[in-house]
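TL;DR need structure tokens for one chain.
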Amino acid sequence: MVKVPHFRSVFISDTHLGNKDCKADFLLHFLNNMHCDRLYLVGDIVDMWSMSKQFRWPDSHNEVMHKIIALSHGTTKVIFLPGNHDAPLQKYSGMQFGDIEIKRQYVHHTAANKRYLVLHGDQCDGDVTLGKFHAWIGDKAYDALLFTNRWFNHIRSWRNGQYWSLAGYIKQRVKGANKAIERYKNATTQRAKDLSLDGVICGHIHHPESDTVNGIHYVNDGDWIENCSALVEDSEGNLNLIDWVAYTNQATVSELDIERIGASTKAA
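>> reply
TL;DR here they are.
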């Protein structure tokens, strides 16, 4: 019998359902092959920006939404923290959509009695961007990067290759992107520090990472546009980042137990 991992908490963000670059098939596979007590949707779950320009809603995206709703109807507590791409939903903070709670930000208590600020991260844009013109240039450059990533992986699939994030590889080597990430890490951890919390869990910049900044534990759960990543908490309160594509390429689902998942990226 297949052993499906059970997590105390799972954090995912930046799924961008409705966007042509959303890796909905990988995301659905992840959701179908794990159980969790709490599921945090850390913003940009539905890409309303993208759909306002060109409406796109494939069956796979619909299946993801149905799966999330089904989880909320069961034993999983689902908390949704809207980001900038699903900003119209921010005004419903404090309300419920069916069994899904909507919050702008939230304080998560781990099993190890650590307290983490959970937020999408767009709240810190003013501390990170250098103005509207630079932000516009950045958006256009990122669109071009995703276009390149999409066709690069189409070619790899034709040759029976596995998915690999060319976009992530390039971003890591762009000096300006690295500086923006550092500013973002400083801004988000400062918010947690101001609230006397132990750490911050966020998304927004599509860069999964675990680090300590000014004594605050910073964890970015990544995205499902480039990286297909998630953050999971085990029963003892340990936080681990998952690269779902890498793990499913290396092992069958039956081997993906909690002891193996994220072992090489265990959060401090």
